[in-house]
Design brief:
The structure is a single chain. The chain is an alpha+beta fold. The chain has 2 domains: 10-81, GMP Synthetase, Chain A, domain 3; 92-153, SH3 type barrels, CATH 2.30.30. It has 3 helices and 8 strands. The chain has helices at 10-20, 52-67, 92-97; strands at 22-31, 36-44, 77-81, 102-107, 114-123, 130-134, 140-144, 148-153. A 5-stranded antiparallel sheet has the order 7-6-5-4-8. A 3-stranded mixed sheet has the order 1-2-3, covered by helices on one side. It is elongated. The model has no long low-confidence stretch (mean pLDDT 92).
C-alpha cells in the first residue's frame, strides 16, 4: 500500500511526534518548490480525539524543527489535523481496528478496481496479512494487504 515512508521529512516528523505521544497517519505534499504545503494528519497514542490544542502543539514542535533545517524553504505552509472521517488504512493494525466499518478500497482483485466495502476481518500476520471485505452485493473478497494500492475509511451522510 502506498505510504509516506519514502519522504525525507518523515523521520523528522515521526521523531517530533514520538516525543509528543502522537502517530503520523498521513503526510501529503503540495504547493510549489518555493512554497511547499505540508498536510500532516496525526493521531493521539491514547486514541482520544485530536483537539485544536493538540494540533497547535504538534504544529509548533514541527515548525521548530523545520525552521532549523537548511534544506527547508523559508516560506512553507504547515497544516496539522486529525485523520478525519476518510482516514487512510495502511497497516495491519489499522485494518484490524476498523473491522465493521466501510472503506473505499483500490485493488486489482476487486471488480472495477475500486469499491466501497465493509471490513469483515483481517487474516494472517504483517507480511502475509489479508483483509476480508464484503461489497454492496454481499460478495466477499480476501485481499492481500500488499495488493491494495489505496484504502480509506468511507464516510456517507445519512439521509
Amino acid at each position: 500500500m502506498a505510504g509516506h515512508a519514502g519522504d525525507p521529512l518523515q523521520p523528522i516528523i515521526t521523531d517530533a511526534l514520538q516525543e509528543l505521544e502522537f502517530d503520523l497517519v498521513e503526510l501529503r505534499r503540495g504547493g510549489s518548490k518555493a512554497r511547499p504545503v505540508l498536510e500532516i494528519r496525526v493521531e493521539r497514542r491514547d486514541r482520544e480525539k485530536v483537539s485544536l490544542e493538540d494540533c497547535t502543539r504538534v504544529s509548533r514542535a514541527l515548525e521548530a524543527r523545520f525552521d532549523a533545517m537548511e534544506s527547508m524553504p523559508q516560506q512553507y505552509v504547515l497544516e496539522v489535523s486529525s485523520p478525519g472521517a476518510d482516514r487512510p488504512l495502511r497497516t495491519v493494525e489499522e485494518w484490524r481496528r476498523f473491522v465493521g466499518r466501510r472503506a473505499t478500497v483500490t485493488c486489482g482483485a476487486l471488480p472495477g478496481g475500486r469499491q466501497d466495502v465493509e471490513i469483515l476481518g483481517v487474516e494472517g500476520e504483517d507480511g502475509a496479512a489479508g483483509a476480508v471485505v464484503r461489497d454492496g452485493k454481499g460478495v466477499e473478497y480476501q485481499l492481500p494487504l500488499d495488493t491494495i494500492t489505496q484504502a480509506r475509511l468511507a464516510f456517507h451522510w445519512k439521509r
